[in-house]
Amino acid sequence: MTINESFAYEAVTGFKFGSQWIGKPKMISFVYYVDGLLIDTGHRKMQKQILQTLSPLTVDQLFITHHHEDHSGNIAEVQAMHKCPVYASTECSQLMKSPPSISLAQKLTWGSRPPYEDLIAKEDVLQTPNYAFQIIPIPGHASDMVALYEPDRKWLFSADLFINTHIGYFLYTESILQQIESINRILKLDFKVMLCSHNPQFENPKQQLIKKRDFLNEFYDKVAKLHKEGYQVNEIMNILKLQEYKLVKLLSGGHLSKKNMVTSVIRDFNT
């Protein structure tokens, strides 16, 4: 089953894509379009639907928020369709030349992530005819991830900073402290909508982001306390009654797990 829907918010159009073998897709990604700017390209599993949806648009420029496959899966095809420049952070532009390998679970969910060598590094501000989007680093979920913020309209395109108020697993490369710091950086901004790449928030977006920060802070404090007391990772998981999503962990070869959340705390604590 697939999902291919859209919504309008002021001058922004959001396109919602999802696919799953059986039943309604649980993993959703959004592509956003505003004033000739396309933000991300969605995942490769939905390439046919994505290209059909984006074909009628006038895309003057494309921006990639980070290198993960559900954001960068269709760069070459979208660029070829619209003949537009493709921008990203400096780190993302380097990573995409030879992107890291992905797990079986990620391939099954999102599809592959082909390299792309022609990303143009862009920092500070991304200009469209009517808007100026500040480019704000928000590492943690991915080291190269950035948000786009339009201060006059109070729009925040938050990439994967939010996702949800509670998180069930991490990639091994994620940093919990960097995520907390990135959330605190964004909370200083004045925004009225949070256009998350998986779960956009139109009502009380700051409060929702605060809930996630508080969850991460509480998780960090609990794990760090037990780590200081000498407990090992598996012992910490047992004490805190942390249950894995076993199928996700198995299919990902451990790349996606709750254990990674615990090891992220310990790694950040010891750094």
From TrEMBL:
The keyword Disulfide bond does not apply. It holds the Pfam family Lactamase_B. The keyword Hydrolase applies. GO terms for molecular function: hydrolase activity. Keywords: Hydrolase. Residues 28-198 form the Metallo-beta-lactamase domain. PANTHER family: METALLO-BETA-LACTAMASE DOMAIN-CONTAINING, METALLO-BETA-LACTAMASE DOMAIN-CONTAINING PROTEIN. This is Glyoxylase-like metal-dependent hydrolase (Beta-lactamase superfamily II).
